[in-house]
Amino acid sequence: MPACVRCSNVDNDCVYPESRRKRIYKRANVKEMEEQLARLEEQLNLHIVNGEKIRGTTGTKPAPDPQPKEMSTAIDAPEYELPNSGSGYDWVSDGQLIDLGVSEPLPPFEVMEELHDIYFRNQHHSMPILHPTLYLQAIHGPPNKRPPMCLQYIVWAMASKGNEKYDFYADAFYKRARQYANADEMQGDGDHLALRHLQAYIIMAGFEAKCMLFTRASMNSAKSVSLVHSLGFDRVDDPDVSPASITVSSIGWIEMEQQRRAFWGAFAIDSHASISTGWASLIYTNDEQLMTRLPASEDAFLFGHKEDAPFLDEVFTGAFHSAFATTLVICHIFKITLNHTSRHSYGAAFWKRHKDLDHKISSTFMFLPERFQSPDYKSDPVAAHTNLNLHATTICLHYAAVQMVDKHSHSEATKQQSLGRMRISAEEIVEIVKAISPNSSIYKSVLCALSLYCAASVYIYFARDNPVEGLSANELANFETILRSMETTGNDHKITRALLLQVYRDAERYGLSSILHLPDTGQITEVDLGYCPSVFMSVKIAMIRQPITSPLQVGRLPLGGAGDLAFQDLTYSTLENPLDPPDISTYTDDSMNNGRQLQDVSMPLWPQSENDLSSQMLESMTSQEPTLNDRFELELM
């Protein structure tokens, strides 16, 4: 035993005197902390023992029914039926669930990783508001740093939608995302809602729009718009606003860019809701308080390179803008064009708006990014989608002008000029359709479906304007090309199917079916088209303005009255969509409560997933071709 020299000489025990020792004072709550630590250690040991017992069990569980029944949403329904150790998955610890405020087991870790990979590969491009690296770091970080459960579940729902392996789980993920979002809203005064909740509302609205639940999508869109304004994201780049006056402080350029993208994501959802339903828009781009720049390029966002993007009005004077910004410009032009054409006023005000919009559309064509001006549509679907939408807005604008000329006997020269613009735009749309693959993903876009309908309506008008001679051989060939494209896409896309049926009805209304060689409408409805929802009240841009009334459908669009174009009402009896309209009884007031005890949605066994997906995700994203990195608008959110 070591000892000092003095103690060794006198043969004494070498002990440091108590009087010279530094006194150590225990904190008052040390005893309580020690007791709490002991309880936690006891619980941890109990979980470990239980886990060993579970892993020690043998046997396999039956495979899920290939055609499962509708998922139960009762409160007393069983929890997730997770696989045992034989499938290679680990249980999520109860302590982790408590930290997250979750009342049911999460999906297996490998399943979550695969869903994240699917989302950022296939779905992120349609609404790029999440920063992949920061989001995945938060997911794998401590519980208090993770995104809210509503955002996690809606990301999984969006990844599952349309995926062959996980599509059956999309509805359950979506319902839980809504439940967690509602529960978060009821906490406190709601002041804790921030960027992550805003992102959840935007993605949720996009998911609902894909499922054609436009009423719910519009409600979540309205929530996102309100939250955007309360957080001050509509004035991120306002030099007159001090950082202290903004609710959420900015942490670096990437954080500010996320705020910009959240605002413009809400703008895109609001625009699509207005275009798809005809309802009023909630974000006004002519507002002087709109002081948020357009999103920067995707590479700058991913790698954190600071880039000063232009404001919206600067795009029309030649400012360089990214592909995502181009999508937003298209939304802006489409929205204000439909707002203009839906008005019934005539006179100097109408023609002034017409001239201003025509100039704005021409400026957009002129100042498109270089890759969009002489594009290779086969290799660049973003360019194809952008040009389709711009030509569709041109048709909408000049169709309204032609109708005004016919109604008020205006100058024939004005009519011929507008007819010429319509003809050119329709021919350009046909050329784009010929250039891209019939199975291209751009056909699944709502605005693409509307573009094809606009082009078809041009040829219907030409046939109606000259019923004796009808269409020329070239015009008839173009019309048939559009119909074939819509028929092919309509097999998988309900909105395109609805608009195709409307084309047939428009031709039948004017007695043009024989001239245009169209089939009988009744047979198409029953055999070829199946279920066709009533959508696009905004198509009262009035390719044909004839009053058709249709009753209100529960959970769908309230359709137009006299003077509004609405599609024929059909029942749900022939619906074949994997996400059928949910059972209304599962959404009663009694099925939800204000606490954290959430409604349970039972799920079958998880399918097997690939390993080591997380290590490949970021590398695969950054190694994609540039044209795919920017593919933002190929689908409706």
TrEMBL record:
<keyword id="KW-0175">Coiled coil</keyword>
<dbReference type="InterPro" id="IPR050815">
    <property type="entry name" value="TF_fung"/>
</dbReference>
<keyword id="KW-0479">Metal-binding</keyword>
<dbReference type="InterPro" id="IPR036864">
    <property type="entry name" value="Zn2-C6_fun-type_DNA-bd_sf"/>
</dbReference>
<protein>
    <recommendedName>
        <fullName>Xylanolytic transcriptional activator regulatory domain-containing protein</fullName>
    </recommendedName>
</protein>
<feature type="domain" description="Xylanolytic transcriptional activator regulatory">
    <location>
        <begin position="217"/>
        <end position="301"/>
    </location>
</feature>
<feature type="region of interest" description="Disordered">
    <location>
        <begin position="578"/>
        <end position="597"/>
    </location>
</feature>
<dbReference type="Pfam" id="PF04082">
    <property type="entry name" value="Fungal_trans"/>
</dbReference>
<dbReference type="GO" id="GO:0005634">
    <property type="term" value="C:nucleus"/>
</dbReference>
<dbReference type="GO" id="GO:0003677">
    <property type="term" value="F:DNA binding"/>
</dbReference>
<dbReference type="InterPro" id="IPR007219">
    <property type="entry name" value="XnlR_reg_dom"/>
</dbReference>
<feature type="region of interest" description="Disordered">
    <location>
        <begin position="52"/>
        <end position="71"/>
    </location>
</feature>
<keyword id="KW-0539">Nucleus</keyword>
<keyword id="KW-0805">Transcription regulation</keyword>
<keyword id="KW-0804">Transcription</keyword>
<feature type="coiled-coil region">
    <location>
        <begin position="23"/>
        <end position="50"/>
    </location>
</feature>
<dbReference type="GO" id="GO:0000981">
    <property type="term" value="F:DNA-binding transcription factor activity, RNA polymerase II-specific"/>
</dbReference>
<feature type="compositionally biased region" description="Polar residues">
    <location>
        <begin position="585"/>
        <end position="597"/>
    </location>
</feature>
<dbReference type="GO" id="GO:0006351">
    <property type="term" value="P:DNA-templated transcription"/>
</dbReference>
<dbReference type="GO" id="GO:0008270">
    <property type="term" value="F:zinc ion binding"/>
</dbReference>
